[in-house]
């Protein structure tokens, strides 16, 4: 089945290759990488390739509120075959303030047109937090508050994706004292949405979610906070390349000290890896392999994907260890210790047996000889 | 007086190289090789000792039981010289010889067990010696007693080598050594029990008798002394084909039974008062070992209750053996079975460890045979032995 | 000696034993040294990172120990001749809730308790175990040690350990890093502890700190000192924990200079239920009652010599006559 699928997708892929101006090999590599990111079984890359090549690209409306556009920037800088191009062709980006050539009324008109054309089918991506204090006056686009804009766009959307920590739960703008009342998308809409937190989020986590939607017609499975499980299922601490140092109690105590230079665990410098769910250590950033992420280059994780950790706790503050269970290798209160020897147990049993037997034999003989002696001595005694 | 003349000690004579002595020598040699290995590669190389059982069979058997079994000399000296039962005199020398070996080997085997044996002199050195330690008291008393015993036994050598002058000089002060020979074992045999006091709750309630431990260990040491005298006389009479001091042994047995009864009263009363007896009815290895121990102590009481039974050498022998087993079990139980420093620890002696103990016993028996054949130890037979 | 005399002396021996029993209780527990130093271990703060285990090895120059097939890193199962400090884990049921006895887990540190009245010091026949009269740190002098392991057997916490695999063995035990004091260091385990779970200080201050923690309402914000009390790092933020109402080491065994707090009962964490009276007091009380000033042994020897003088002389004359 995989082969047939692959042959079919190879034909389709040729069309994509033509359309995007990238090599066929590069395209298939991208599909394989996406499948891997999603944690899909072998063969899924074929389905992905076919979906990208043949399915109608979903219309995407991308809103920006209280943010730095870092999420978009990081997506643009993804280096799997010119991802900027690919993402624009995998999806049909009908409204994106940063990437739009249009401006002003034209832009707003395009958004409304797209919403009308793809009513109930488009995907709404939100980047940035929504200020709710004072009726949301702190962020307005085209005269509309962020609250109104979000609600209007979300009403007819097939799916809502909050990208970045700001959109996910408020992120950096919501840091205390949070003067504008920055809030996450789910909070404002009053319903759960898919969130891709991170500051910025890893582009592949977003891209893979989008491809999942395209391939399987639904967004990937998410956790209680709306985060796709394939990307946010495990603690940074669990996959961290410095984990061995943690388990062995080897810590960097200060930036630049001997431990820090030797790549020791950054826990005591405030690394939030032990309480932050993200796949940073496994996929890394910047497409130069998995050794390029904050912890790998010597900075403690700040917990940007975790509400209540990133932008809430101080960077130097020591993390709470969200151990699911303590490591199995740790010594238990009672360990089986000491040595016994079967050989000597057997030997001892043999010795004891021989001794008892010998004593019994001797006692019997004594009884006999004593009886004999008493017989012979009796006349003498009397 | 004529009786005494007949019982004056004399060498047995006879061949030293027999199949028995050969086997004993081989066993002793094996132990020697294992000990050599231990001194080069550490205790862990030949024993199953661990931090949960820092004391194994070498301490529990070789030292604690070994010295208790060697209490024959002490028990007989107590009887003959202190309670003035001169009639037991013929039993003193052989018992003293056995004690001499038992104690000397117990003392020597401590060296095998000491990790830093080259520092052993620290025990006797002011500045190092720590007088609050029970171990200090035990070590000093045992060492002193070994020296005292060699002095007590010296007349035998003097006789052998015809040093009548030296013998006479020693005789004049011998009473002091006899007194010491009673005092010192009283001190350290009781203190071997006191060793367990500091283990506190690490000793199972069935054996943690606190301040009664010294009394119990002393009583059982004297009991073991009597039992060993009976055991050895019986064995010697069989092995060397000699007649037995039947009357003496029967009377000694009577004494032993009374003391045993007294011990059992103390032992059971202590368990009842401390409320520890419940533990004996749990299904644990400790309870099983406790009942084995009690059975071994009660058996002689039952077996040797009547005068007729005490005159029966086979019953007397079985009673003595049972009592020895009881005394051993009390000590094995107190020091090993009833000792638990924490859950999860196991100990059973390793084969080399066991072989050292076996070799030590073999050496002791071998030396005893050699001594009685060459030195005036056993009472001279009235009639030539068949 | 007649029967009456025999019974009289037996009675005397019994009376002496009873007197010894009574006098054995005379020796009180020792009292806390004036400048007692110690550790406070708070199981609820411990994250099980084992930094203290690694730091202890480094500070005391101890070799790694392997309990796994792969010899990647130091994995001691318990205190040993190579390990002076170890973090153990308690697990129950699903083992998911920290510091809960049911379906939970908890970490626990094992190292020398530096008892106020230590068994090891009382047991040692050659003064190789020594309690500092000022700081109360229990130190070990291997040059004095004879390797009898009475201390190993006597310690109720299983602390002194022995190197059985060496021809030149020695006892290993925590000495509160007293060798690091001259360089301004202190207990390495406390120095590296990231959460302040192991805290170093004077016993008086540590007990105050423990009382402060126990007084706080569980769940309320709390500030914890790290490293040593009165050091530079005194404000590690956290949340007040729920403890079992027990400061282990306050009364146990006459008190210890390492005290512990935990959310799980201590018996489950491998800390034995011990009486307030130290075994050293019982043992030394008994010894002093029997041998104090050597009064009883000398008196006994006098009586024995008096009796033996008569009996031995008679014996000697007989021997001479027939010898």
What this model shows, in words?
The complex is a heterotrimer of chains A (382), B (386) and C (323). In chain A, the strands form three sheets. Chain A has a five-stranded parallel beta sheet, sandwiched between helices. In chain A, strands 4-8 form a two-stranded antiparallel ribbon. In chain A, helix 1 (2-20) packs across helix 3, helix 2 crosses helix 10 and helix 3 (44-54) packs across helix 10. Mean pLDDT of chain A is 82; it is low at 377-382. Chain A has helices spanning 2-20, 24-38, 44-54, 70-76, 83-90, 105-117, 146-155, 164-169, 185-189, 203-216, 229-232, 236-239, 243-247, 258-261, 280-283, 342-381, and strands at 59-64, 92-96, 123-127, 130-131, 140-141, 144-145, 159-163, 182-183, 194-196, 337-339. The radius of gyration of chain A is 35 Å and the shape is elongated. Chain A is α/β, with parallel strands linked by helices and 382 residues long. In chain B, helix 2 (19-41) packs across helix 13 and helix 3 (57-69) runs antiparallel to helix 5. The longest helix of chain B is centred in the middle third of the chain and has 31 residues, at 164-194. Chain B is globular. The model of chain B is unreliable at 1-6 (pLDDT under 50). The longest helix of chain C has 28 residues, at 295-322. In chain C, strand 5 (129-131) and strand 6 (138-140) form a beta hairpin. A three-stranded mixed beta sheet of chain C has the order 9-1-12. Chain C has a three-stranded mixed beta sheet with strand order 2-4-3, with no helix packed on it. Chain C has a two-stranded antiparallel ribbon with strand order 5-6. The chains are: A alpha/beta (382), B mainly alpha (386), C alpha+beta (323). Chains in contact: A-B, A-C, B-C. At the A-C interface, helix 13 of A face helix 2, strand 2 and strand 4 of C.
């Amino acid at each position: 089945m995989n082969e047939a699928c692959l042959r079919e997708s190879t034909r389709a892929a040729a069309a994509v290759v033509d359309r995007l101006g990238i090599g066929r090999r590069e395209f298939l590599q991208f599909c394989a990488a996406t499948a891997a990111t999603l944690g899909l079984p072998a063969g899924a890359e074929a389905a992905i390739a076919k979906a990208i090549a043949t399915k109608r690209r979903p219309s995407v409306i991308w809103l920006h509120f209280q943010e730095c556009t870092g999420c978009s920037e990081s997506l643009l800088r993804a280096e799997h075959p010119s991802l900027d191009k690919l993402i624009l062709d995998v999806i049909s980006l009908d409204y994106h303030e940063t990437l739009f050539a249009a401006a002003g009324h034209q832009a707003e008109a395009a958004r409304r047109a797209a919403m009308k054309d793809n009513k109930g089918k488009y995907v709404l991506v939100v980047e940035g937090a929504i200020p709710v204090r004072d009726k949301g006056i702190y962020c307005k686009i085209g005269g509309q508050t962020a609250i109104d804009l979000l609600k209007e766009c979300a009403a007819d959307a097939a799916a809502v994706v909050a990208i970045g920590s700001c959109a996910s739960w408020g992120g950096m703008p919501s840091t205390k004292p949070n003067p504008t009342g920055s809030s996450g998308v789910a909070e404002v809409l009053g319903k759960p949405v898919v969130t891709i937190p991170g500051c910025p989020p890893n582009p592949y986590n977003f891209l893979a979610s989008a491809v999942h939607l395209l391939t399987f017609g639904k967004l990937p499975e998410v956790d209680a906070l709306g985060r796709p499980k394939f990307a946010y299922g495990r603690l940074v601490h669990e996959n961290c390349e410095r984990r061995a140092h943690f388990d062995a109690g080897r810590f960097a105590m200060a930036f630049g000290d001997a431990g820090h230079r030797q790549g020791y665990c950054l826990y005591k410098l405030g690394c939030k890896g032990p309480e932050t769910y993200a796949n940073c250590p496994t996929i890394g950033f910047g497409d130069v392999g998995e050794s390029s992420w904050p912890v790998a280059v010597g900075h403690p994780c700040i917990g940007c994907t975790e509400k209540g950790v990133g932008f809430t706790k101080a960077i130097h503050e020591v993390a709470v260890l969200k151990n699911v269970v303590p490591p199995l290798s740790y010594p238990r209160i009672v360990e089986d210790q000491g040595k016994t020897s079967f050989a000597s147990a057997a030997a001892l049993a043999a010795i004891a047996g021989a001794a008892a037997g010998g004593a019994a034999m001797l006692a019997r003989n004594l009884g006999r000889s004593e009886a004999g002696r008493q017989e012979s001595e009796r006349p003498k005694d009397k | 007086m004529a009786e005494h003349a007949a019982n004056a000690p004399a060498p047995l004579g006879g061949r030293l190289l027999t199949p028995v002595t050969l086997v004993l020598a081989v066993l002793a040699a094996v132990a020697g090789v294992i000990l050599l290995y231990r001194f080069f590669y550490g205790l862990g190389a030949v024993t199953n000792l661990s931090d949960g059982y820092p004391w194994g069979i070498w301490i529990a058997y070789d030292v604690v039981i070994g010295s208790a079994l060697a209490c024959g000399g002490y028990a007989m000296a107590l009887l003959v010289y202190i309670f003035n039962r001169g009639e037991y005199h013929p039993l003193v020398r052989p018992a003293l010889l056995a004690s001499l070996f038992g104690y000397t080997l117990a003392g020597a085997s401590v060296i095998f067990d000491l990790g830093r044996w080259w520092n052993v002199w620290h025990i006797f050195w002011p500045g190092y010696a720590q007088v609050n330690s029970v171990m200090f008291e035990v070590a000093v008393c045992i060492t002193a007693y070994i020296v005292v015993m060699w002095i007590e036994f010296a007349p035998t050598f003097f006789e052998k080598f015809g040093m009548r002058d030296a013998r006479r000089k020693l005789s004049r002060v011998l009473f002091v050594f006899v007194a010491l020979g009673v005092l010192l074992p009283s001190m350290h045999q009781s203190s071997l029990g006191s060793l367990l006091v500091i283990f506190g709750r690490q000793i199972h309630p069935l054996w943690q008798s606190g301040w009664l431990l010294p009394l119990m260990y002393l009583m059982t040491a004297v009991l073991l002394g009597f039992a060993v005298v009976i055991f050895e006389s019986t064995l010697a009479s069989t092995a060397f084909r000699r007649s037995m001091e039947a009357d003496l042994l029967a009377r000694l047995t009577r004494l032993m039974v009374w003391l045993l009864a007294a011990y059992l009263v103390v032992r059971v009363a202590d368990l009842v008062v401390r409320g520890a007896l419940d533990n004996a009815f749990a299904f644990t290895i400790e309870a099983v070992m406790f009942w084995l121990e009690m059975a071994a102590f009660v058996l002689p009481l039952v077996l040797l209750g009547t005068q007729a039974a005490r005159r029966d050498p086979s019953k007397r022998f079985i009673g003595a053996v049972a009592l020895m087993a009881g005394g051993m079990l009390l000590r094995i139980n107190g020091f090993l079975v009833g000792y638990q420093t924490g859950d999860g620890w196991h100990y059973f002696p390793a084969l080399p460890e066991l072989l050292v103990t076996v070799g030590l016993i073999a050496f002791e028996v071998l030396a005893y045979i050699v001594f009685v054949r060459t030195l005036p130890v056993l009472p001279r037979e009235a009639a030539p032995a068949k | 000696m007649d029967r009456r005399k025999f019974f009289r002396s037996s009675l005397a021996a019994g009376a002496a034993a009873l007197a010894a029993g009574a006098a054995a209780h005379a020796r009180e527990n020792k009292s806390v040294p004036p400048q007692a130093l110690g550790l406070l271990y708070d199981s609820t703060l411990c994250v099980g990172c084992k930094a203290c285990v690694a730091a202890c090895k480094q500070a005391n120059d101890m070799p790694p120990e392997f309990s796994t097939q792969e010899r990647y890193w130091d994995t001691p199962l318990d205190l040993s001749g190579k390990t002076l400090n170890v973090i153990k884990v308690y697990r129950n049921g699903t083992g998911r809730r920290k510091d809960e006895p049911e379906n939970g887990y908890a970490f626990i540190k094992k190292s020398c308790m530096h008892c106020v009245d230590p068994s090891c010091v009382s047991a040692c026949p050659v003064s190789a175990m020594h309690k500092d009269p000022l700081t109360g740190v229990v130190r070990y002098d291997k040059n004095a040690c004879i390797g009898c392991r009475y201390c190993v057997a006597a310690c109720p916490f299983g602390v002194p350990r022995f190197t059985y695999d060496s021809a030149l063995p020695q006892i290993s035990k925590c000495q509160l890093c007293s060798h690091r004091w001259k360089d301004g260091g202190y207990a390495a385990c406390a120095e590296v502890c990231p959460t302040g779970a192991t805290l170093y200080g004077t016993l008086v201050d540590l007990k105050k700190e423990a009382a402060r923690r126990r007084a706080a309402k569980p769940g309320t914000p709390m500030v914890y000192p790290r490293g040593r009390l009165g050091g530079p790092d005194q404000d590690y933020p956290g949340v007040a924990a729920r403890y079992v109402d027990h400061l282990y080491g306050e009364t146990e065994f006459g008190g210890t200079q390492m005290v512990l707090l935990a959310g799980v009962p201590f018996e489950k964490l491998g800390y034995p239920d011990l009486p307030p009276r130290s075994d050293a007091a019982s043992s030394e009380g008994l010894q002093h009652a029997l041998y104090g000033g050597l009064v009883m042994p000398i008196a006994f020897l006098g009586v024995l010599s008096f009796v033996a003088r008569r009996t031995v002389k008679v014996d000697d004359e007989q021997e001479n006559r027939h010898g």
